[in-house]
Write a structure and sequence with these properties.
The structure is a homotetramer of 336-residue chains. The first copy, chain A, is an alpha/beta fold and 336 residues long. Chain A contains 14 helices and ten strands. Chain A is 42% helix and 16% strand. Chains A and B meet through helix 1, helix 4, helix 6 and helix 10 of A and helix 1, helix 3, helix 5 and helix 9 of B. Chains A, B, C, D: One of its GO terms (molecular function) is lyase activity.
Chain lengths: 336, 336, 336, 336
């Protein structure tokens, strides 16, 4: 069984059904009936007026958001371990035309008001230094931790006070909400978030993510930038339909709950092997190469993360029953 | 019946089947079994070694190709009516970091060696002028005309002599090949083409195009640029599978033949209304507003192109029988 | 005697004196006493509040202005023969991050409201087309013609009505004012101009031009862009001092008058050889290669412009007496 | 007396003389007699074939160098405290179209092979991470330390082994050479440096720095980029003349020796206040606010650097006699 990443899991049957349902000629690009329903559907979920744009990847979502919040000559505060810093091949710099990521600290890839202030306050306000224009956080984080609504709101207040835009990379937003049990609104716009990259691909989708603007005016230029980046697919309805399918009948949160539950079960087995508290669907565990080899010999696949550390990620399609054998195997390791 | 554009037609059943067949966990990005088969499958089709990369849109394909052929400070010769000039919202400038499109003339949106020379020879070879680095042609063109292998080869020779890269926008490459009945190789690398944007979305695909490098070394940096543009979808197998499905059993050429046949039937009915000879699946017809209204009243939808001109595009899923009523209606107009 | 270009002439003695007067330690960049006087000095000249920034080249001035008026995804309407289109090696695209120049027509490199409308009205207002955000004109033009205050105002009105920023490339602004005898204000902000590239290098300066913002708020980001482009020289006082010297005692207009007078004298001798009416300090003349050779044999140097055409440019340091021999020689040609 | 920075000092009389000597019409841009002598003059100094381009600022020199060595999607390893990282407002990102600075550690702003390896080895060689393409070091460093020829060569070897270009920011290269007493060649190309930003402005020049390519082929595209960035001043001879004047009669090294000598004298007085060993013309000293106030009350101006730290910079025009009163004043502080 594979625990490499949720980003390569299968597509949920409901998503496939939606693709089939969209399989008839309609207006191209985002003029079709499905695409036009996005603003409303996301607005309902978040309980406020939003502009919602499908995009084919999370990197695209993140970087369009950053470009909407930060000029080419500005900077974006993010965590040193943020996906936008380490795993997007310089896409933020491409989309923003060279804005600079300003790196902050924090346990579990979580920024705090203090760690943001440490970055921002060190920048003299003159023309020689790249000035901060936005903050970007990831929830759930790159280490599977979550920001609570209160933590997000504290950053949101700081952002507002400093005139910074506020972006949330929500590649695993559903997993965070599933863990927190909060309203999506409380974790986003009510906490000061301006733009959310709402991930669906890791959560049962095929190739549609959704960029949600809580400040609708930011969407205007983004519509142009999306086209200019070659992201305005001509048969956009097949992307919109995926997003809509994920929102219907709470599929997005159900899928996230399933993945989280599987991770929680594994975490329990892993005990104090946990390097970061397991709060979503990712596990970072201390494990010797020999132990890792033992698990792999039993048919479990996962990434080595660092020396003596491994990462396991559970997916929407892995039930607790599915992962129980791995939990047992891990617990067995502990017995040694 | 709608004749707006082939870019919003339905997806071919075989493509859907391929999506289902790919619906199981595999390696993310382009490390999966489907993506890895692309080089071979396209290499077989073209009879030479190629590097083939899926991308989710034709604009992305074109602009990655241009970025591979032209530095930020260079220029790309294209037709004044080229899609890259008029319909991509400045995406070429975005991907190339500001390269300049150098506009040439020619009937039916076709460049010729002479019209290219007219552009290139007018540029003094000094540091104040943007120097040409590449030529880009569209086949079939934006006006539904085709370049023959000999015409492409003549441009290819000029490109080689002048040290220019050579890109072909093949959003409707299949339609051109279907018309010409030539080997794909004769229309591309044997004629000097370095990179082809091979379109599938207009021809029965959902959201996968293929960038084909006949000079494989150009693909290396493009792999990075694709990621950097947010185009490296994590579940890439669903794109690769589409391309492979289109290639299997000659689906790509069969679909194009169907669309072309429908267009030819309409062209015959349109007679000397044709503004551009109908050589693929697009018709540009002289038509008064009253005549257009007559057709629309009969349930036929299409775009007004210019004053007294309309455009009709046929799709892979429109049989001759399907379009016969429109042909009759057009012929009826002629009777007036 | 050389008539290649005013852009390589000597430096006026008063400018050199000003450089010497500035030759003592002061604050770096633009914090010095000279730089701080620019806003006031230019504000006085134009009779309104301005922000004035020195820059070391006209290309830099133009492109910073365009970047202030047009986003990366926008377009700038300019004349087909504009310097920014043909002679700046793609610098506008570099500074704007890929904005597109939208080319208009007009005699003598002069745009008109009609020719601008022809460009702008042809652009469908959708996300696929690059939308116009600004107009840029050159006064005096690349062919030595001038726009009158009324002509500029007509373009200014159109720009305002269409929501377009308005830039004037004034590499030879002084020559235009000298010809027109108007107030600088009438040719700029009163006519709707937002930003002026005020040229001094061609007019007796060494390496300082001045960017004048009539909408001061546009200057803020430009201060950053200037630094980010490596244009914020550390000893800025040596640039500011040049600009101030040019403004003192009307040196800028006196120098321009001298150059214009020399050109007028030559124009009189050239008679109907003139391809463009001589309204500043440039002459474009019909001349056979043999005639050109005759002049060159007499020691007069100048550029061939096109087949059967030559260009001559006079400079601030060429008196009518200096150019009289050339006038005579040209008149002599006419006698043949 | 002011010790803020050498970047605002006066211009050496020999430089002014050279400007006057260049004050006659010649070919524009870099076609003049002075500009054409640069390759030869710098080639003589470095004892190898070079291409040498004047530019008006150090930021411009650095960033053109980085653009020559690193593609838009690449990374440049530099010290965390490098000028290109902290003091150029994102100019490296602008010129390279978004390349990423990869930050390394080291005392006194000096990178070491180990600290470079620590950066480079942590980057997985896949398409998701920005790959390193170049190393940039500053000599003398931002903290007034110098790299010896052996230290540079060790980095040069590593760069070569890893396929990285190698740039040296030599804003105070002269000060480094003056301290080391080595041949300029030993500190640059013989140690593997590909491009040097050779600074003259801090050392007696007005507004000309020189970009020296030890791999001449890198200069070709840079000539275009220089124009495209608005840096190809039309009266380039006034820049070339400055560089030539600085090279003549060893003025560049004499000036640097003077500045270094003044700094050394102050360093001796400062004793163990030195935070970084004084190896060029900058001093970073521990000093309480009260002590700093005492000095300022005696007419000495300088920057506070951090809490309890000040920075003093000496210039080419400050003799040991000139700075002796400050030395005495500092020593006096120590007595308290």
């Amino acid at each position: 069984m594979r625990f490499f990443s949720d980003n390569a899991a299968a597509v949920h049957p409901a998503v496939f059904q939606a693709l089939h349902a969209a399989d008839r000629l309609d207006t191209a690009y985002d003029g079709d009936a499905w695409s036009k329903r996005l603003d409303g559907a996301l607005g309902d979920l978040f309980g406020t007026e939003v502009r919602a744009l499908w995009v084919p990847s999370g990197t695209a979502a993140n970087c369009l958001a950053l470009a909407a919040l930060c000029p080419p000559y500005g900077g974006v505060v993010c965590h040193r371990d943020a996906h936008i810093q380490n795993d997007e091949a310089g896409a933020p710099e491409f989309y923003t035309h060279g804005a600079k990521l300003l790196l902050g600290e924090g346990d579990g890839a979580k920024l705090t008001p203090d760690s943001i202030r440490a970055v921002v306050d060190a920048i003299a306000n003159d023309v020689h230094r790249v000035q901060p224009h936005a903050v970007s956080i990831t929830n759930a984080t790159e280490y599977g931790r979550v920001y609570t609504p209160a933590e997000v709101a504290a950053i949101g207040e700081l952002a507002k006070a400093r005139g910074l835009g506020f972006h949330m990379d929500g590649a695993r937003f559903a997993n965070a909400v599933a863990t927190l049990g909060c309203a999506p609104a409380d974790l986003t716009w009510r906490a000061g978030v301006d733009v959310l990259s709402f991930g669906f691909v890791k959560n049962g989708g095929m190739n549609a993510e959704c960029l949600v603007f809580f400040r609708p005016e930011l969407a205007e230029a983004t519509l142009i930038r999306r086209k200019r980046a070659g992201l305005l697919l001509s048969k956009g309805r097949y992307l919109a339909a995926q997003v809509l399918a994920m929102l219907e009948d709470d599929l997005w949160i159900e899928n996230a709950r399933a993945a989280n539950a599987a991770a929680t079960l594994l975490a329990r087995a892993a005990g104090d092997r946990q390097i970061h508290a397991v709060e979503a669907n990712e596990l970072f565990l201390r494990m010797t190469p020999a132990e890792a080899a033992t698990l792999r010999a039993q048919g479990f696949d996962f990434y080595d993360w660092a020396e003596g550390e491994v990462r396991l990620v559970t997916s929407w399609d892995q039930s607790e029953a599915d992962v129980a054998p791995l939990a047992e195997a891990i617990a067995g390791l502990q017995g040694r």
